[in-house]
Amino acid sequence: MESWVRAVVEAIHSSRAQAVIYLAGGASQALGWLLSVPGASGTVLEVVVPYSMASMAQLLGKMPLQFTSKQAAEDMALAAFNRALKLSGPGLQVMGVGFTGFYVSTRTQNCLRTSHVTLSKGLRSREEEDKVSSYFLLKAIADGCKVPATIQSDVQEPELPKESVEQFDEDQELQQVIDGQVCMKVYHFSDSMDKNFNRKIILPGSFNPLHDGHLRLLEVASSMCDDGLPCFEISAINADKPPLSIAEIKRRVEQFRKNVIISNQPYFYKKAELFPGSAFVIGADTAARLVNPKYYGGDYNRMLEILLECKNTGTTFLVGGRNIEGVFKVLEDLDIPVELREMFISIPEEKFRMDISSTDIRKKQGP
Which helix (H) or strand (E) holds 99? Predict the structure, then answer.
C-alpha cells in the first residue's frame, strides 16, 4: 500500500465517522486498503456488493432505470446512510457510500456529494482501472469524513472527478424524516464522544411540554444502565394524528439540553428495528398497552410474535411507575407474559415516582 493511501486511511479511521458502503462494481482495492489498517472495525460498519439486478432492486426497494447512473449511486448512498444510522455506535457521525463504477456518492446528515468518474478507454488494464477507481472512492470517503486527501496517481486532467454538492439545512433534514426518506435526525446537545457507549437508552414521548418527570426518569434509567447513551426520542409521525410540522418539531427540540432523536416510527416494534439493542424507558401505562392484545387486533399470539421479534433485536424496556386510572402502578402490578418478562426491567418506586404529566401541565397553562 502506498504511504499516502495509508495516511488517508488512517485519517479516515481517526475521524471516528462510521460508514456503510454499497459497491455495484469496481473499486475493490479501496476496501482492502480500508480494512487492512487498524481501526477499520470502528469505521466500516458494513459492505454490500449488489452485483445482480435482483440484489440491487432488493437493496433499493425498486429497480433503477440505469444501474450505472448518478441517480443509482445517490439512491445507494441514501440507502447506505439509513443503514448506517441504524448500525452506528451511539453519538458517532455516520455516512452512506454508493459506487456504481461511474459515479461515487456519499451521504451524510446534511450533505450529498456525487462525483462522476470517467477513465480513458484502453489506457489501463482492468486491474489498473480498479486501482484508479479505488483512489477516487477513497478520496470521496475522506471528503465525507472531512479528512484532507489528494489523489496521487497518473490520472489525466480529463479524468479528474467532476463533483456536485448538495447541502441540506435543518428544515430540509426534518422534512426528509417526515417524508420517510431518512429514518432519523439526531441532535447532539451533550459531548458523547468522551466515552464509548454500547447502546442507547431512549425515552420516547411527545414532550409537549418537557417536564422534570421526564428528566428525572431518564436520569434514573441511565444510572441503572451506565453503558448506554441517554437520549430522548420524538416521532414526527403519529399513529392516529397528522405528522408534526417542522416548526412544531423545532419548538419541542428547543426544550432539550440532552441528546434528542427525531424519528419517523410511532410503533415500538419499528423503533426496535431502528434502534437495535437499545433500552427504552417507558411508564407502566405504556407497558400495559404493549402487552394488551387489544392493540394487536385482539390477537394474543400476534402480540407475542411482535414483541418476541423486538426481544430478538436485543430490546429491553425499563418501566417506571405511573398512575393508571387513579392508581399508582409499577411493573410488578402488570401481567407480563412469561416469554417476555426478561425484556421488562422495573424501576423501583423508591428510585422514581413523580405524579406529573404533560397533559396536566397543558391544562393548567390553558389555551
Answer: strand 94-99
